[in-house]
Design goal:
The protein is an alpha/beta fold. 28% of the residues lie in helices and 16% in strands. An 8-stranded mixed sheet has the order 5-6-2-7-1-8-9-12, sandwiched between helices. A two-stranded antiparallel sheet has the order 3-4.
Length: 281
């Protein structure tokens, strides 16, 4: 340390034992009128595995357990959350911030589709703009005392995933996959990214795991044998859940009535989420 040290580390570029400057956090601040206790990311290594449906089901289930839940739809270019909940209104705002929509059972939702004139208009933006919108959904939206927020992430490990993990205090992630053999590699990418960002993996959901024939009650593996147990063992993930191919679930999403679904397939994941103490609590 220099003999003339004034202990003003912000203006000093020397490294010494007395340096007191702390690393700057990249976590974005919530709106002053917001409160979010727990944040869970829902991710997938590839598209088409039902990630948004799983996000919706988890939010509905947690809401049924008397948690005030919310969904931040971070899939900016492929938003589908409003459709599943039958929400067609545009987002509103005031001088304090953006007001999220509320579903029929009170789940708070924000999505890029709610900012468009027509929900079929494409969003043709580069990565930085998309990342900034996701961050604004966290900082500018007024979230009303949320117990559990689910973030519906876009597939893959690109810009938006990095923005979410760096800018939002995510307490854990749920990985959604399907039975195909290739998913082992895909899941490993998601697990490794979470590990690099020091975010725990809560569990894995295998969607389209089987089809239960209504005539003989037999399970048919339409997409091949399940590999989820082996994948979970390889990555030391304790909690798994299997979702069947269920036409009624697809119909509920298409008709905006996902809140009416019946089924306990995701109970193991929900119980694990309930155990987590969020950074906002």
């Amino acid at each position: 340390m220099s003999k003339e040290c004034e202990h003003n580390c912000e203006e000093c570029n020397q490294e010494c034992e007395s340096r007191t400057e702390a690393p700057k956090s990249l976590i974005a601040q919530l709106n002053k009128d917001s409160k979010v206790k727990k944040v869970i990311g829902v991710v997938s290594g590839k598209g088409g595995v039902g990630k948004s449906m799983v996000t919706s089901l988890l939010a509905v289930l947690m809401n049924r357990y008397e948690n005030h839940t919310a969904i931040l739809d971070a899939d900016i270019t492929g938003p589908s959350i409003p459709k599943a909940f039958g929400i067609s209104e545009r987002a509103k705002g005031n001088d304090e911030g953006i007001i999220p929509a509320r579903s029929k059972t009170g789940i708070e939702i924000i999505s890029s589709n709610m900012l468009l004139e027509n929900d079929t208009d494409p969003i043709i933006w580069r990565g930085p703009l998309i990342g900034n919108m996701v961050k604004q959904f966290w900082t500018d939206v007024i979230w009303d005392n949320i117990d559990v927020m689910f973030i519906d992430m876009p597939p893959g490990t690109g810009d938006v995933s990095l923005t979410v993990f760096q800018s939002i205090p995510v307490d854990g992630i749920v990985i959604v996959t399907s039975p195909q053999e290739l998913v082992s590699m895909i899941v490993s990418k998601a697990v490794n990214m979470a590990d690099m960002m020091n975010i725990p993996v809560i569990g894995i959901v295998e969607n389209m795991s089987y089809f239960l024939c209504p005539d003989n009650q037999k399970e048919y593996k339409i997409f091949g044998d399940s590999h989820i147990e082996q994948i979970a063992a390889d990555f030391k993930i304790k909690t798994i859940a299997k979702l069947p191919i269920e036409p009624r679930l697809a119909s509920a999403c298409d008709n905006g009535i996902i809140e009416l679904f019946a089924g306990d397939w995701l109970e193991p994941i929900v119980k694990e989420i309930d155990k987590i103490k969020g950074k906002g609590e």
